[in-house]
Amino acid sequence: MKFLIFSDIHSDLAALNALMDTEADYYICAGDLVNWSRRIDACGEILRRRAGKVLLVPGNHETVDQVAQLCARHGLQNLHETSVELAGHHFAGLGYSSLTPFDTPGEYTEPEIAERLARFETLKPLVLICHAPPYHTRLDRIRNLLHAGSKSVRDFLMRHQPEYFFCGHIHEAAGVSEILGRTKSMNVGKKGYLLELEVPQ
């Protein structure tokens, strides 16, 4: 089973169309379809081409309510703060970023992130999709030695070791992967990553 996982489209409709042209069983967006909540329905019109196969979480540029409404209007599935079982794995999602200097629409404090991630502790095997990358890793490096990820996301990964972790948010790290303990992790960016999982017999 193939899962095309991507993030940070930021209203690049050509990039989103190209992703929807790619054949996969499911399409998972790790947030930031748009900039500052603007023109989100334009993205919804493209995503509805794969209605029933699209799961998404809000980034820091859209709100929980906007994503819920988008899903209801276009036949998409809201993965924020919930999980689904696919290909013998639990796919769980948490949107929003940790706090930024820009006061974007979708931000959580570190305690809020930790509290929301806690509901996924017992899910195994787990594929975790977050907008925010783990702090002080290759996935959240802005430039030089500066990092802008979430400490709570990193703590969850190191403590519970999901099989896979995918994120976005930090554009400079798009396409970068790292193994954190036993967790295969990647900042997918708008080009996306095709995850292939065998379906248990």
Task: Describe how the helices and strands are arranged.
Layout lengths: L1 E5 L6 H9 L4 E4 L10 H8 L6 E3 L7 H11 L2 E2 L3 E5 L2 E6 L2 E2 L8 E2 L1 H8 L8 E5 L10 E3 L2 E2 L3 H10 L3 E4 L9 E4 L2 E5 L5 E4 L5
Parallel strand pairs: 1-2, 2-3, 3-4, 6-9, 7-8, 9-12, 12-14
Antiparallel strand pairs: 1-15, 5-6, 10-11, 13-14
Helix pairs in contact: 1-2, 2-3, 4-5
Structure in words:
23% of the residues lie in helices and 28% in strands. It has 201 residues and is of the alpha/beta class. The strands form four sheets. A six-stranded mixed sheet has the order 5-6-9-12-14-13. Strands 4-3-2-1-15 form a five-stranded mixed sheet, with helices on one face. The longest helix has 11 residues, at 64-74. The two termini are 13 Å apart.
How many helices? 5
Secondary-structure element series: EHEHEHEEEEEHEEEHEEEE
Average pLDDT level: 97
Strand content: 25-35%
Helix content: 10-25%
Short descriptors:
alpha/beta; 28% strand; 201 residues; 6-stranded mixed sheet; 5-stranded mixed sheet
Summarize this entry quickly.
The protein has 201 residues and is α/β, with parallel strands linked by helices. It has helices at 13-21, 40-47, 64-74, 110-117, 151-160, and strands at residues 2-6, 26-29, 54-56, 77-78, 82-86, 89-94, 97-98, 107-108, 126-130, 141-143, 146-147, 164-167, 177-180, 183-187, 193-196.
